[in-house]
Amino acid sequence: MNALLNFLAVINFFLVFIYTFLGLNYFVILSLIGLLIRSKPLQHYALRNMVAPDQWWNAALRGEEDETVSSRLGRAIKSGRPKWWAKLFAGFVNFLFRIIAGQKNHCLISIEKRYEEGAPSDERLSFIKEDKAA
Length: 134
Known about the structure:
Largest sheet: none
Oligomer: single chain
């Protein structure tokens, strides 16, 4: 049943991503406008609105609804045992943030403090390989 729910979670992630993509792009453009006109309040407003779909994507992937996908990917990379697809996805996210925001290692920087020591108790689809020694 867990494998079926994980498969459904991936399908749901793609559906939610498609649903939120247009709005996300609008706020990226708004953020860039804020950057061009040097308006910190506009940039901050746009950023807050870009975090919301990111948290929805994470919840769709059976993660904590208050954590971003970037934070979760960062935790996987920091563990030293990311699943191959999490490593690939983190590379893609890091590349996007390098191009858009000039930020290196976005996923590692994005790890939320309260999750630095590990996953929330309700995370059901791990981005980290199981430790065979445990």
